[in-house]
TrEMBL record:
It comes from Rhodobaculum claviforme. GO terms for cellular component: plasma membrane. Pfam families: BPD_transp_1 (PF00528), OppC_N (PF12911). This is ABC transporter permease. GO terms for biological process: peptide transport; protein transport; transmembrane transport.
């Protein structure tokens, strides 16, 4: 009773909004969250669940099918596919999440500044973003990785660079929609500084749309990383990555199709999970989209 009375009205209203938002999440969102949570746990505890060392070669057991001592079989070098799949999840999740978080921070900041200040700054910033958007994401990522080198950090930077304009555009649109609202004008009349209005008052209003964009772009980041690895611009062997496993399995697609199909299915499940979360968040933020989508 005392906690309820002493709690600030803003805090109570915030809790009510959070509960209302969670209540609007549909079943597909929870399915996506369950899949992502399961994959994260498998990746974090990969040494526990793995049955063999991911890079250990056994020349006596090449191209073994699923079952027996090897749950999902072995590749052409006798390496355990199940173990490599678990450790490969670490890289796919790390690259996907890190790249999009970086793109979200940088792109949202650019879009917010451009939208709030307007004028020449808006024109310059958005024209730069349009130039980046003119290139297909995969082609641009390929060029950047080829120039920078195929390291974990460089792959994250390359994918983040391709995703930044999308966040800049959605943040700019949100700020433009909010900057003429009455609460912003009231803040200006009270003498609040521009940065305070922008980051303390406008940012919370545009973050839901940015978060939906982030969840959807994480799926794109996973696909881009897998594509780069497939064409030989991923992490260097013997580091296990899902895209690299698909590439290795493609050489034996006729004699051992499971080598390529298993990591391909893993990529499919991860991308599907991110898309389910993104669609669910979009519907929860604006339920009217259910009728139009």
């Amino acid at each position: 009773m005392t906690d309820t009375v002493s709690a600030p009205p803003a805090a109570i209203a915030r809790k009510g909004r959070v509960r209302s938002f969670v209540a609007r999440l549909n079943l597909t969102t929870w399915i996506g969250l369950a899949i992502i949570t399961s994959l994260v746990l498998l990746a974090v505890f990969a040494p526990v669940f793995a049955t063999h060392a991911p890079s250990r070669q056994n020349i006596m057991d090449p191209l073994i099918g699923p079952g027996g001592d090897y749950l999902l079989g072995t590749d052409q070098f006798g390496r355990d596919i199940w173990s490599r799949l678990l450790f490969g999840a670490r890289y796919s999740l790390t690259i996907g999440v890190s790249a999009i978080l970086l793109a979200m921070v940088v792109g949202t900041l650019i879009g917010m500044i451009a939208g709030y200040l307007g004028g020449r700054i808006d024109i310059i910033f958005m024209q730069v973003m349009d130039v980046v958007l003119a290139f297909p994401a995969l082609i641009l990522g390929l060029a950047l990785v080829a120039m920078l080198g195929a390291t974990l950090t460089n792959i994250i930077i390359a994918i983040a660079f391709t995703a930044t304009p999308a966040f800049a555009r959605i943040a700019r649109a949100g700020v433009i929609a909010q900057r003429d609202r009455e609460y912003v004008q009231a803040c200006q009349a009270m003498g609040f500084s521009g940065p305070r209005i922008l980051f303390r008052h406008i940012t919370p209003a545009i973050m839901p749309e940015v978060m939906v964009m982030a969840s959807l772009w994480m799926a794109t980041a996973v696909r881009t990383e897998a594509s780069l690895a497939f064409i030989g611009l991923g992490l260097a062997p013997p580091t296990p990555t899902w895209g690299g496993m698909v590439r290795d399995g493609f050489d034996n697609i006729l004699s051992a199709a499971h080598l390529a199909l298993i990591p391909s299915m893993a990529i499919l499940v991860l991308v599907l999970a991110f898309n389910l979360i993104g669609d669910g968040l979009r519907d929860a933020i604006d339920p009217r989209l259910k009728d139009t989508g």
